[in-house]
């Protein structure tokens, strides 16, 4: 009833090819954007912006990048955090060393640099796949973090590679308060998410999916594996790189290489598993879930322990967190391999008939 | 030159330690096609259970038996509650499930046995052998030699087990082809439970060696990170590959740590220590470009 595409006739190619062909989707997206751009800035508190909303958007962007590589092109990567690190440090160095470069351009260049590094570490994917490739991307994870720590030039000779982001200034306006930073991050993420949504339905996106489903078959039907896989690595690392730059400039302010640890890479991987592998929406849902879960546990566990008079320490919280993460990953892989995004899809199917199922 | 040999031998012996962990990966991969990322966490769990049981007052031998029981039960539970539900899923999904499993163990184990670092005494101290120190002037640790001996015994036992026992033959059949093995009446699920039990045993041995050397602490889970390049180099499906790969990785890593940073320092200035973290990976990666199946791995042929 509410969500039914019956009666929506497409009379032009433009109407048929638009990004959201169903009217309800268009309305939904517009409402969502309106809430995000107009509603939330008016309501949310400082804490919400800097502790929840900004990291959510940034990690959603990184998860989106990984989802392009893993979900669409089928190449598992365990090095997303390292590509974020490349982005953060590249943005820093562009700002530092190029006179008068606009910050948005240096974010863009951060993405491009990360893409270049991503292609470099994607090269092995032409010969190897599956776990072998996953292990190869671990090489990127360790090597990049080590490089950033050890080459003093990259962090402008600061001790142990810590960098402090310069101020974010666009057209003379300095983005300082969490609210302004939120709006900046939101705009970038929205543009990139829509671009990704468009990208995965083009011939490139379809080629990626063909490679994911079976690369030998894909090459037989005339998809050139090398450019396709490398492009997936490039685009994915571009997204991660921009996410990394935003992470440094709009979220933390100062970052160190060790912050972009293997654990963070796993976290991003968990986001796409829980959110939905091969789904743009899933990246957002997964990021929200993974970020909110620890906060939820932090709040509820002490309360539960108090209820049952159990001894309780902070170490236990972090252990329970890991345990719950692990259990959830296994649970989702077993019960719903397509993640939260699939649940949303099922809900839409139901909404088609609801409230008159017959 | 003598220093070179000392580093080389030290590296080879520490490589054996990597092989111990890598063996667990190979066993499970061979028998069920699952790349078990949780092997490092299993090593941690095994070492923790030994220490935990000893803290409760059990003597070493009893603690080892109890730990073995725990590992076996754990392996069977994993098979029953996780892997069995994921039959017919793509291997990459299984791989990700084992990442989840690793997190699960890393959270669960310290909750049961406590997470403060502890020493594990197994009666051998990590000190140089005096005879060699006196005659050749080289430092070779007793402990490392013991580890090498244990690895040798372990590999021989496993080889004999795979080659000559009924279960071993069944294991190899399952590894070769699940369907064919099922059709001639091999109970797949028992076999998998056994494999996870055996992998738990290997993790126990590795956990005791690593735990005795570095103390039982969370860092034990990172032994898996050390074993991965070994696997790539040696091939996922080969027990001898795990040993040879371990030797190569161990030796080259230690040599690189000694000889590469000074070169880089003279080129760029600054301190370039700690390349052990990534050097094995880059080495394995370069090797992969030449031989994607590893040294002793089976050549993989794709069919549409």
Output the keywords.
heterodimer, A: 358 residues, mainly alpha, two-stranded antiparallel sheet, B: 304 residues, 73% helix
Describe this structure in words.
The complex is a heterodimer of chains A (358) and B (304). Chain A is mainly α and 358 residues long. Chain A contains 14 helices and 4 strands. Chain A has a two-stranded antiparallel ribbon. Chain A is globular. Chain A starts with 12 loop residues before the first helix and ends in a 5-residue tail after the last helix. Chain B is mainly alpha-helical and 304 residues long. Chain B has a domain at 24-218 and 238-245. Chain B has 12 helices and no strands. In chain B, helix 2 (39-55) runs parallel beside helix 4. Chain B starts with a helix and ends in a 14-residue tail after the last helix. At the A-B interface, helix 6, helix 9, helix 11 and helix 13 of A face helix 4, helix 10 and helix 12 of B.
Average residue pLDDT of chain B: 83
Indicate the multimeric state.
heterodimer
What is the count of DSSP helices of chain A, taking H or I runs of 4+ residues? Answer: 14
Share of helical residues of chain B: over 70%
Report, as a whole number of angstroms, the end-to-end distance of chain B.
54 Å
* Class from secondary-structure proportions of chain B: mainly alpha
- Report the mean per-residue pLDDT of chain A as an integer: 89
| Radius of gyration of chain B from CA coordinates | 20 Å
Cα shape of chain B: globular
Listing every helix as H and every strand as E from the N terminus to the C terminus, the arrangement of chain A reads HHHHHHEEEHHHHEHHHH
Low-pLDDT runs of 5+ residues of chain B are: none
- Into which percentage range does the β-strand content of chain B fall? under 5%
Question: Strand fraction band of chain A?
Answer: under 5%
Report helical residue fraction of chain A: over 70%
Net shape of chain A: globular
Low-confidence stretches of chain A: none
């Amino acid at each position: 009833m509410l969500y039914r595409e019956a009666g929506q006739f497409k009379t032009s190619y433009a109407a048929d090819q638009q990004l959201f062909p169903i009217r309800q989707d268009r309305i939904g997206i517009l409402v969502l954007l309106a809430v995000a751009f107009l509603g939330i800035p008016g309501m949310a508190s400082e804490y919400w912006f800097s502790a929840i909303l900004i990291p959510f958007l940034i990690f959603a962007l990184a998860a989106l990048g990984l989802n392009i590589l893993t979900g669409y092109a089928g190449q598992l990567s365990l090095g997303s955090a390292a590509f974020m690190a490349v982005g953060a440090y590249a943005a820093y160095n562009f700002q530092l060393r190029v006179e008068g470069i606009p910050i948005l351009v240096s974010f863009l260049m951060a993405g491009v640099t990360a893409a270049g590094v991503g292609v470099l570490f994607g090269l092995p994917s032409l010969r190897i796949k599956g776990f072998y490739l996953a292990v190869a991307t671990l090489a990127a994870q360790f090597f990049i973090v080590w490089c950033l720590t050890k080459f003093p030039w990259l962090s402008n000779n600061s001790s142990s590679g810590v960098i402090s982001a310069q101020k974010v200034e666009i057209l003379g306006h300095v983005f300082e308060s969490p609210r302004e930073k939120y709006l900046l991050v939101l705009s970038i993420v929205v543009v990139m998410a829509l671009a990704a949504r468009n990208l995965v339905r083009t011939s490139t996106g379809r080629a990626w999916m063909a490679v994911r489903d079976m690369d030998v078959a894909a090459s037989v039907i005339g998809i050139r594996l090398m450019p396709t896989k490398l492009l997936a690595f490039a685009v994915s690392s571009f997204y991660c790189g921009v996410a990394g730059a935003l992470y440094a400039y709009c979220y933390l302010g100062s970052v160190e290489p060790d912050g972009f640890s293997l654990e963070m890479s796993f976290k991003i991987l968990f986001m796409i598993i829980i959110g939905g592998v091969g789904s743009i929406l899933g990246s957002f849902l997964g990021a929200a879930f993974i970020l909110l879960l620890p906060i939820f546990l932090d709040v509820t566990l002490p309360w539960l322990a108090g209820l049952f008079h159990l001894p309780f320490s902070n170490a236990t919280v972090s252990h329970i967190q890991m345990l719950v993460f692990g259990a959830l990953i296994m649970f989702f892989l077993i019960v719903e391999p397509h993640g939260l995004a699939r649940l949303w899809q099922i809900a839409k199917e139901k909404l088609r008939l609801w409230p008159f199922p017959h | 030159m003598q220093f070179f040999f000392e580093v080389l031998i030290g590296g080879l012996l520490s490589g054996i330690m990597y092989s111990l962990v890598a063996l667990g990966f190979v066993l499970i991969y061979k028998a069920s096609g699952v790349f078990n990322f949780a092997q490092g966490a299993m090593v941690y769990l095994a070492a923790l259970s030994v220490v935990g049981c000893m803290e409760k007052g059990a003597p070493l031998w009893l603690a080892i038996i109890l730990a073995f029981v725990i590992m076996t039960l754990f392996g069977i539970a994993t098979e029953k509650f996780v892997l069995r539900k994921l039959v017919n899923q793509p291997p990459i999904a299984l791989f990700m499930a084992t990442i989840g499993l690793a997190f699960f163990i890393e959270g669960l184990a310290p909750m049961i046995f406590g997470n403060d670092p502890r020493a594990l005494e197994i009666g051998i101290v990590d000190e140089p052998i005096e005879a060699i120190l006196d005659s050749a002037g080289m430092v070779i640790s007793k402990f490392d030699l013991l580890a090498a001996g244990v690895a040798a015994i372990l590999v021989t036992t496993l080889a004999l087990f795979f080659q000559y026992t009924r279960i071993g033959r069944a294991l190899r059949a399952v590894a070769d082809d699940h369907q064919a093995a099922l059709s001639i009446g091999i109970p797949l699920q028992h076999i998998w439970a056994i494999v996870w039990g055996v992998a738990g045993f290997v993790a126990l041995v590795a956990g005791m060696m690593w735990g005795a050397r570095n103390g039982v602490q969370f860092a034990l889970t990172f032994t898996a990170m050390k074993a991965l390049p070994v696997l790539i180099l040696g091939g996922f499906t080969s027990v001898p590959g795990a040993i040879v790969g371990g030797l190569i990785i161990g030796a080259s890593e230690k040599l690189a740590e000694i000889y590469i940073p000074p070169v880089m320092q003279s080129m760029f200035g600054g301190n370039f220590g700690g390349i052990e973290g990534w050097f094995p990976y880059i080495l394995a990666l370069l090797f992969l470009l030449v031989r994607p199946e590893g040294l002793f791995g089976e050549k993989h042929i794709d069919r549409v």
